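Could someone model magnesium ion with this protein?
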Amino acid sequence: MSHHYIKTENLEYSYYGGAKAIDDISFLITHGEKVALVGANGAGKSTLLMLLNALKFAQKGTIDIGNTFVTEKTAKFIRQKVGFIFQNSDNQLFMPTVSDEIAFGPINMGLPKEEVERRTDMALQRVGCESLKNNITSHLSGGQKRSIAIASVLAMEPEILLMDEPSSNLDPFSRRLLINQIKSFTHTCVIATHDLEMVWELCPRSIAISNGKIVFDGLSKELFYNQELLNECHLEQPYLAKIEQMKEAEKIRSAN
Ligand SMILES: Nc1ncnc2c1ncn2[C@@H]1O[C@H](COP(=O)(O)OP(=O)(O)O)[C@@H](O)[C@H]1O
Ligand SMILES: [Mg+2]
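Reply:
Sure, complex below.
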């Protein structure tokens, strides 16, 4: 098995004094898979992503990322292997210019100047934002900030990408750009989202969670037609699934 995998076993996490936010979660995600993590607000998506990126540590169970178990000791290494794109890009971007922002991770990794420059240019190119290199970070639009946040993570050359609601608050143009960027990644990706139209395009597999538990893990297409599950997860059926169902009903009607 390639080493770009995520394997969780019986994970549990509770916030101080709270109920279980993550409750007995086990799954295996293999190299190159693009998996949607779906569920209502408060289901536990962000908490799970933070556990996978060693920003929080499970009270029970294990996470194995490419043969390294996530612990406080391995946290630094895990955060280099696993890139995390935050829900709110303003929480991710803190350097004055775009090039400083993207170079920050590689510099912190102790890489030589030429390699930092190579990675900065590569990352900007990957998200199609070469022209923003010398811009002031705080002056960027929401969509540009999301692209630069992604570039700053790509510059670390992670093996796995975690994204927390990446299409939220983007206009249609920026959302389309984001979807095309994600399509071009060969990384193993876990994408927490409510945007099932995006899942339709990007993620053959979905994991749905409700109250911290996995309630579905399988083909996204199966989720799209399971109205009960969609309701439980506060999700709306994708438009294309609605059309397919209408066509199917029409076929049956005309056959009778
Ligand atoms: N910092 C926190 N302190 C206490 N409880 C929290 C905190 N963050 C999240 N929770 C609780 O944990 C549960 C899961 O939240 P979260 O992972 O943010 O869900 P989602 O990302 O699916 O909306 C919710 O019940 C939420 O109220
Ligand atoms: Mg969340």
